[in-house]
Design a protein that fits this description.
Number of helices: 10
Strand content: under 5%
Structural class: mainly alpha
Strand order of the largest sheet: 1-4
Helix content: over 70%
Length: 309
Amino acid sequence: MKQFVVIERSLLVGHILSMIFGLAGLLLVLPHPEFIMNLSEIGKTVFQWSMAGGGVVYMLLGAAAVAVYAYRVLGWRKWLTFMIPAVFLSLGSELLGTSTGFPFGHYRYLSGLGYKVAGLVPFTIPLSWFYLGCAAYLLARVGLERLSLPRWVQLGSAVALGSLLLTSWDFVLDPAMSQTTVPFWIWEQPGAFFGMPYQNFVGWLGTGIVFMTVATFCWSNQSLNLSREQLRFPLVVYLSNLAFSTVMSLGSGYWVPVLLGMVMGVIPAIVFYYLAPPASVLMSETLQQTVTPGQSANDTVQVPMASVK
């Protein structure tokens, strides 16, 4: 599995670097057209390409990184039974939203995020629902597994809080991406939250709850038993995307959405991460569970290392 670790980390690094590159273009280069005019013809071509396809690249890399991670850590069944519902149910919500106004409100996508499904929704948007939704759900579910709660309460709370983490990302992202000088979508039904209707967040929360509930039923009642070290990857994915949105929002003068994202997203995500057991504790618990009658915990017991890496 080491080769998968190298691949997922390389994809994650590319994902983060592409976000940094995008921030530099949107916040530093575009506001200074004289910089663009002084570029060579090749430089201008590269800049135009990056502005046209940069959003596509960072979301493709993020989705690929989380897909490889989920396959490696969770197995192909859990990976696919999360990704497929997340992609298709979120696509359905987005198609409804852009054509009818339900469940998010009336809005439409502009250019810069790739080919549009049915001429309405960029194909990259459902991928972002998948990779941020998976990171948020894993943080909530693994963290809650360490609390002494009835199993149905743990699972229901994981769906609710995972959806809240996902929606908290949109608190920060949406103002930056829809109200700036170079928007990626626009609201045709202006609302009270920095130009967005509050209905948008109800739609986000509801969509997340739907596909996370489907994944919960598909994953059955088993505990994931992931260590804190294994949970570091989804935490980095979540925090790096919040950081991207935070810089965008602050650059546009929006600090209230950032504050909401910190309180309702960043802090709970970090708490869930630290609730997860270190690998050494998880290994010790696994050893105790595998001890047979007549053995002591100090006896040699073979433990699959894939379960704690």
